[in-house]
From TrEMBL:
Higher taxonomy: Eukaryota, Metazoa, Chordata, Craniata, Vertebrata
GO CC, alphabetical: extracellular space
Keywords: Disulfide bond, Glycoprotein, Hormone, Hydroxylation, Membrane, Secreted, Signal, Transmembrane, Transmembrane helix
Record bears the keyword Protein biosynthesis: no
Subcellular localization, as worded in the UniProt entry: Secreted
GO terms assigned for molecular function: hormone activity
Protein name stated in the entry: Erythroferrone
Nucleotide-binding as UniProt keyword: no
Swiss-Prot/TrEMBL GO biological process terms: negative regulation of gluconeogenesis; positive regulation of D-glucose import; positive regulation of insulin receptor signaling pathway
UniProt cross-references to InterPro entries, sorted A to Z: Adipolin/Erythroferrone-rel, C1q_dom, Tumour_necrosis_fac-like_dom
Residue intervals passing through the bilayer: 27-44
SUPFAM superfamilies membership: TNF-like
Source species of the chain: Smithornis capensis
Family: Belongs to the adipolin/erythroferrone family.
Domain (C1q) ranges: 1-132
Length: 132
């Protein structure tokens, strides 16, 4: 059973299909099994001050974690190096996680940059049950 997403109504918002909770930003597994999770985030970096050298080597981590345990084995993760010239970029994470019935998965963005980030509309988060 596939859960598809509609477009967010405004920037910074995800709109998610059945099983996805808009308030908490979580996907709760209806039954135990292996799920394929995919998230694609379109991110804008708004620099407060254009200190170019300060942005060198900035890393952005995007994670999909089970039960908010991101330090655990139960996570998918990607790390992206932000070049100082990037103001708009796309970062994706995809993979398979096992969830017990009633467990949830959610997307986390770990921003080591000094500048604030905005998640743009068109970003999405989906879950598909592979099998039990």
């Amino acid at each position: 059973s596939s859960h598809s997403l509609s477009q967010p109504e405004k920037e910074g918002m995800f709109h998610r299909g059945p099983g996805l909770n808009l308030t908490s930003g979580q996907y709760t597994a209806p039954i135990a099994g292996y799920y394929t999770f995919t998230t694609t985030l379109h991110i804008v970096r708004r620099e407060r001050q254009r200190k170019r050298q300060a942005c060198q080597g900035t890393r952005l981590r995007v994670l999909i974690c089970v039960q908010s345990h991101c330090q655990h084995n139960s996570k998918l993760e990607t790390v992206s190096r932000l070049e100082s010239s990037d103001d708009f970029f796309t970062i994706s994470v995809t993979g398979v996680l096992y969830l017990q019935a009633g467990q949830y998965a959610s997307v986390f963005v770990d921003n080591t940059a000094s500048s604030p980030l905005t998640v743009r509309s068109g970003s999405d988060f989906s879950a598909v049950l592979l099998g039990v």
